[in-house]
Amino acid sequence: MSYEIKGLNEECGVFGIFGAEDASKITYFGLYALQHRGQEGAGIVSSDGQKLHQYRNRGLLAEVFSNPADLDRLVGDSAIGHVRYGTSGNNSLANVQPFLFRFFDGDVGLAHNGNLTNAVTLRRQLEAQGAVFQSTSDTEMLIHLIRQKRGMGFVDALKVSLNETKGGFAFLLLRKDALYAALDPNGFRPLVVGQMDSGAYVVCSETCALDAVGAKFVRDVQPGELIIIDKDGMKIDHYTTDTQLAICSMEYIYFARPDSIIHGVTVHSARKKMGALLAKEQPAPKNADMVIGVPNSSLSAASGYAEAAGLPYEMGLVKNQYIARTFIQPTQKLREQGVKMKLSAVRGVVEGKSVVIVDDSIVRGTTSVQLVKMLKEAGAKEVHMRISSPPFRYPHFYGIDISDRSQLMAARHTVKEMAEIIGVDSLGFLSVPGLIKAIDVPDAGDAPNGGLTVAYFTGEYPTPLYDYEESYKESFKQFPDRKDED
């Protein structure tokens, strides 16, 4: 399995609401707040109490619902919505969620954020038993598993099916008279519950979406939980108690919006602490004139680094906020041009200066090379790069489109080699203990790594890899670890 890695691509975003007038319109606003989690497609399924209604398409949310009539047709007082970044399956309309399944005993809408690590095995088993799939997405597995459980009620069938799915997942399911939310046994993906003044319940990927629709935060969905919301209110159930918190650390490092709160930790605060600890672990050179951040996800870490280092925090890079989505570019020259379209160096700030540039991660390294080149062309005397996460050496199997080591720069090179390739005067990363300390999840208890998944930096995964096990081992034969004094 091999992918062209352009950088870290966001998760998907899910939003659900039950018991609200104009549910689909509220869902639209909630999804708007989650647009950073997926730009390939968007959709909404609503329920009027008798029937489910669906509209979905490829593109950004505003493009998908550019015709107000498409939203107006989604009537009812409950809805689920989804913004998609494809972690499994290709970018076709058939894979845009939420899915809508029509059955003689009631329609079901389904939306999913994450990646099932046993999807290939499940699909083979289900197809051998006669299942016909409408998409190439792993999300569809769940509904086929549920329909297999003949003679069981919906909730019981859902619980058994959730125990058969492995990996990272946050599922929302909508029936005509109920909304269901389920989180994987490790809580890899964030999922929160809120409530509006009207009493309507909201379940979504991040608290920033609660804020966008005026809902008050109620609680984080915990690993292994099944939340059921209907006319009688909210019921908290479990499909398994064999759980251990292992939140994806990349949510704090990169994916989530800085104003979101995940398991009691404000993302901006965590990133600022990452920067401050990075300044202690990887100090700026004595002749450094300033610290600059890479817009937008690295700005919090850069401000923390500057504060701890006692250096001015300057705007040395500017992002074009109106750039269109950047698709896979067929040539290196076009990729480089894409970086220049998105970012530009401020010559009047960096010219003749020794600059410390703080970024959140290095994946393939292409962007880092271009940033350094850009700063030096703008007259920077020296460029020192500091990364507010550890070296990304191992694949991510729980919802990000990185399941191969071949293009992970840190999997193929030592830190010293990376510095030479990127063209920086020095390069330093935050340590794994530093990352865990910076995030400091308050309800982690005695969970390993402070309740975080740090496998992308250590290679120690909190679950079996199932379908990915063999390809993972094979990639190690091709790209054995290259570690140095970092």
Provide the low-confidence segments as ranges.
1-8, 325-330
Give the distance, in angstroms, between the N- and C-terminal Cα atoms.
Answer: 29 Å
**CATH architecture group name of the largest domain:** 4-Layer Sandwich
Tally of strands? 23
Q: Can you tell me the CATH class of the largest domain? A: Alpha Beta
Quaternary status of these chains? single chain
The share of residues in extended strands comes to 15-25%
Structural class: alpha+beta
Task: Give me the Rg, rounded.
Answer: 23 Å
Q: Please, what is the CATH homologous superfamily of the largest domain?
A: Aminohydrolase, N-terminal nucleophile (Ntn) domain
Helix content: 25-40%
Mean pLDDT: 91
Quick one: overall form?
A: globular
Query: Helix segment count?
Result: 18
Strand order across the largest sheet? 3-2-4-1-10-9-11
Largest sheet: 7 strands, antiparallel
> What do we call the CATH topology of the largest domain?
Glutamine Phosphoribosylpyrophosphate, subunit 1, domain 1
Describe the structure.
Strand 15 (261-262) and strand 16 (265-266) form a beta hairpin. The longest helix has 15 residues, at 267-281. Mean pLDDT is 91; it is low at 1-8 and 325-330. The chain folds into two domains: 13-243, Aminohydrolase, N-terminal nucleophile (Ntn) domain (Glutamine Phosphoribosylpyrophosphate, subunit 1, domain 1, 4-Layer Sandwich); 266-478, Rossmann fold (3-Layer(aba) Sandwich), CATH 3.40.50.2020. Helix 1 crosses helix 7, helix 5 (141-148) crosses helix 6 and helix 9 packs across helix 10 (299-309). The two termini are 29 Å apart. It is 31% helix and 23% strand. By secondary structure, the protein is an alpha+beta fold. The protein is globular.
